[in-house]
Design brief:
single chain, 78 residues, alpha/beta, Oxidized Rhodanese, domain 1, 4-stranded parallel sheet, 3 helices, 4 strands, globular
Amino acid sequence: MGTLIDVSDEITYKQNPNPGSINIPYEKLLLNYKELLNKNKKYYIMCLKGVHSRKVVSILEFYGYDVTQVMRNSEKVS
């Protein structure tokens, strides 16, 4: 299993919460990923439209994290 992270901004997350997810806004996650994430854990990354989550997954994969983008309808895309 893994942790579901919604990288939407705080306002968008409050308007469209996804049960079971934690909210870490896109910019905060990318600026603080070393403190917020553990390379030995699995993360599922999502956002409302998929744009920011796709960028986050691409960057974090490059740094060696186990991340997968998921869509709001739970359809796995990468």
